[in-house]
UniProtKB/TrEMBL annotation:
This is stearoyl-CoA 9-desaturase. It is a multi-pass membrane protein. Belongs to the fatty acid desaturase type 1 family. It comes from Labrus bergylta (ballan wrasse). The keyword Membrane applies. The chain crosses the membrane at residues 40-59, 65-87, 182-202, 208-228. Residues 67-269 form the Fatty acid desaturase domain. CDD domains: Delta9-FADS-like. Its main location: endoplasmic reticulum. The keyword Iron applies. One of its GO terms (molecular function) is stearoyl-CoA 9-desaturase activity.
Length: 323
């Protein structure tokens, strides 16, 4: 789910000069696998920094550890409740204040701006496990997890992305504002805010503040969401549709705050909960339900029990367990 780079569209990714996995338009054949060494270096440095953050964990204050968890949850909601369930699938409607909140959270997550992320995710659903899928899991765990970010996009991803209907994203002023100011919002929300809050308010050292709620939290959130692309497409059962690759993976659901019920999600992608089990291992569903209670979200789409039962009977793998 970490989207970087851009297509050869008129509107290019605002983060392209940081992470570039797009094809350049050139004459002649385009190689399907071309390393992007800048991405390799930056991803390597990020994970080295995250490992150093693990070493510094014993030196972090309790307040810093709580702040790290808050930043993890906040950035996670920007992906799960925001760019995934709201903007990619339009599975519920959000008020302007909630959309602003989710856009800010999405910038803290730093997985590319809402417009590019949603476009690539729609391509992923429409052309899952083909060359047009940005993180095609049939190419193996490593490619689906992080390898797809280390090479240039397959031409089919770009071609199919150009054909998608994206007028709803272009019409959303919050989406386009975030896109225009994405790089600045990432610097502030993904790196400066997580570091400066513990340093200023309770005297945490800058080193601990940068490497723990900063880099370690960021790397953990990335890998949690990448597991949806990799582990949840490889390991688990398929109680709703055995003809597709995505699986039910409770471990991924826990780490990715509710996004591991992937066989259900690909079978019923319009369901705002991405699961039939409500808030069970699904903090994102609990959050959206809370927003509905507060009047900030409406029109949550759900699948009827009869439709689920009929689908299980018709295409399930026989491993369905209720509740």
């Amino acid at each position: 789910l970490f989207k970087t780079g851009s297509s050869a569209m008129a509107e290019r990714s605002t983060v392209e000069d940081v992470f570039d996995d797009s094809y350049r338009e050139k004459e002649g054949p385009k190689p399907p696998m071309m390393m992007v060494w800048r991405n390799v270096i930056l991803m390597s440095l990020l994970h080295v920094g995250a490992l150093y953050g693990l070493i510094l964990l014993p030196y972090a204050s309790f307040s810093t550890l709580v702040w790290t968890a808050v930043c993890y949850l906040f950035s996670g909601l920007g992906v799960t409740a925001g760019v995934h369930r709201l903007w990619s699938h339009r599975s519920y409607k959000a008020s302007f204040p909630l959309r602003v909140f989710l856009a800010l959270a999405n910038s803290m997550a730093f997985q590319n701006d809402i417009y590019d992320w949603a476009r690539d995710h729609r391509v992923h659903h429409k052309h899952s496990e083909t060359d047009a899928d940005p993180h095609n899991a049939t190419r193996g765990f490593f490619f689906a997890h992080i390898g797809w970010l280390l090479v240039r996009k397959h031409p089919d991803v770009i071609e199919k992305g150009k054909k998608l209907e994206l007028t709803d994203l272009k019409a959303d002023k919050v989406v386009m504002f975030q896109r225009r100011h994405y790089k600045l919002s990432v610097v502030i929300l993904c790196f400066l805010v997580p570091m400066l809050v513990p340093w200023y308010f309770w005297g945490e050292s800058l080193a601990v503040a940068y490497f723990v709620p900063g880099l370690l939290r960021y790397a953990l959130m990335l890998n949690a969401t990448w597991l949806v692309n990799s582990a949840a497409h490889i390991w688990g059962n398929r109680p709703y549709d055995k003809t597709i690759n995505p699986r039910e993976n409770p471990l991924v659901a826990f780490t990715a705050i509710g996004e591991g019920f992937h066989n259900y999600h690909h079978t019923f992608p319009f369901d705002y909960s991405t699961s039939e089990f409500g808030c069970k291992l699904n903090l994102t569903t609990a959050f959206i339900d809370l927003m509905c209670f507060l009047g900030l979200a409406t029109d949550c789409k759900r699948v009827s029990k009869d439709m689920i039962a009929a689908r299980i009977k018709r295409t399930g793998d026989g491993n369905y367990k209720s509740g």
